[in-house]
Amino acid sequence: MLDAVALRARLNAVRERIAAAASRAGRDPSSVRLVAVSKTFPTDYIRIAYDEGQRDFGENKVQEALTKIAALEDLAINWHLLGHLQSNKAKKAAAGFSAVHSVDDAGLLKKLDASAREVGRKLDVFIQVDLAGEATKFGAPRESVQPMLEAAATCDAAHVVGLMLLPPAVEDPQSARPYFAALRVLRDELVASGAPAGMLSQLSMGMSHDFEVAIEEGATVVRIGTAIFGYR
Ligand SMILES: *Cc1c(COP(=O)(O)O)cnc(C)c1O
């Protein structure tokens, strides 16, 4: 059963941990944005977090999200799509979301740009990078990022704002650290080689079990579900 008091307490505990991790890393806590991952949870949960000041929510599936977006139309929510997007759903995604974190090829990027233009919206895009070379996972190989940034330069409704990482699932958050660090290094190398810094200012990395490590390694967006809403 939904326990609003407990949900609010968990959200605020996560906020405090984010701020503490940022301070430890010598960073301004306001440089880290929390996306509350509400996938599988009903809209009552989202309303409670919203009442507590949360504005960014993450969903994994377009259809599930669209139902929630319609039910919560009265709220000023920024919806983030985190899961894999099939290009035939680009238009629906562009109409509902303000950010897509899972763009992993130039064709999908162009499709999203065209869709966003068509529905008269702006869309923030993160390029999801696969640094582990996991054949089963989504994400662009590192050598594809540069060509995607070139494609992004010709987009006008979809704006690439940074990179996203979903590291291999590991028990110990410290084992994810090399992946987080590698995403930051990749970003720095791309900027050093002349890629537009404005397209690379954000790093979306870190989930419930490892967000503090991600923040220490430079995350500007953390995507947290379980630690706020409970187990799915
Ligand atoms: C589900 C999900 C999250 C949140 O995971 P938790 O472990 O519940 O915090 C973050 N990012 C992506 C891409 C997800 O699919």
Structural class: alpha/beta
Sheet with the most strands: spatial strand order: 7-6-5-4-3-2-1-8
> Which small-molecule species are bound to the chains here?
pyridoxal-5'-phosphate
Beta-strand content estimate: 15-25%
Mean pLDDT: 96
The residue ranges in which pLDDT falls below 50 over 5 or more consecutive positions are: none
Question: What can be said about the biggest beta sheet?
Answer: 8 strands, parallel
Give the C-alpha Rg: 17 Å
Q: Can you give the helix content as a percent range?
A: 40-55%
CA-CA gap between termini = 13 Å
Molecular shape: globular
Number of H- or I-type helical stretches: 9
> How many beta-strand segments?
8
What letter string, H or E per element, gives the SSE order? HEHEHEHEHEHEHEHEH
Multimeric state: single chain
Keywords:
single chain, globular, alpha/beta, 9 helices, 232 residues, 8-stranded parallel beta sheet, binds pyridoxal-5'-phosphate
Brief overview:
This protein has 232 residues and is α/β, with parallel strands linked by helices. It has 9 helices and 8 strands.
Description:
This protein is α/β, with parallel strands linked by helices. 41% of the residues lie in helices and 17% in strands. It contains nine helices and eight strands. It has helices at 4-24, 43-51, 62-71, 90-96, 106-119, 145-152, 177-192, 211-216, 226-229, and strands at 33-37, 56-59, 78-81, 99-103, 123-129, 158-165, 202-204, 221-224. An eight-stranded parallel beta sheet has the order 7-6-5-4-3-2-1-8. α4 (90-96) packs across α5. The radius of gyration is 17 Å and the shape is globular. The two termini are 13 Å apart. It binds pyridoxal-5'-phosphate (PLP). The site of pyridoxal-5'-phosphate (PLP) has 13 residues, from β8 and α9. Residues 37, 39, 60, 82-83, 166, 207-208, 223-227 line the site of pyridoxal-5'-phosphate.
